[in-house]
Prior knowledge:
Layout (H helix, E strand, L loop, with lengths): L1 H9 L1 H20 L16 E3 L8 E6 L4 E6 L2 E7 L12 E4 L2 E3 L3 E9 L5 E6 L10 E6 L3 E3 L6 E4 L14 E3 L4 H7 L5 E5 L1
Parallel strand pairs: 2-13, 11-12
Antiparallel strand pairs: 1-4, 2-3, 3-4, 5-13, 6-10, 7-8, 7-9, 10-11
Amino acid sequence: MPSETYAVVMNPKSKRILAFAAATGAILLASCSTGPPRPPAKAERIMYQWHDDGGPGEVSISISLGEQIATVMRGGREIGWCFVATGKEGRATRPGSYNITEKIVDKHSNRYGWIENEYGEVTDDDASPGDALQPGERYMPAPMPYWMRLTSYGIGMHVGNIPQPGAPASHGCIRMPKEFVPTMFDKVKVGTPVKITY
């Protein structure tokens, strides 16, 4: 039976008949559709990868300001990477060699946030605690989940929005994808080295 099917498919006349039948079927199926055709799905950018082998060696992190990518190493072997959003112009993240000095799962900024009105609508998306408020407004400190402090002056790594992968966007901190950070947070410790370079 398989050989007969193969012979029919390979016959040029049968190929045309099959093509016509397929086209007719597609038209009939499309005409029975209950709505407009769906646009093709957009390809999603890969924001991170994690492939820790659990082998020997200490974890270290390097962050490229030029590429806006953090690479996580264990004993010299890459075990993961992610896009980051570092400080934008005027608030640039400083290159240098750092160590994680503090880890807090649920932290909020004491410097930056936003102001919202009584309906929860944001009236100022780049506010500080001392900014003037209109009646009914309140200041909301920016959440910084999975905080890993690098400096005494408030720079660290944490979950945050990366509006355009490859471009700086923060007030100086290193924002990382929310799906990636909890895994990395679990593997680093106070003292883990972090190198930030151009």
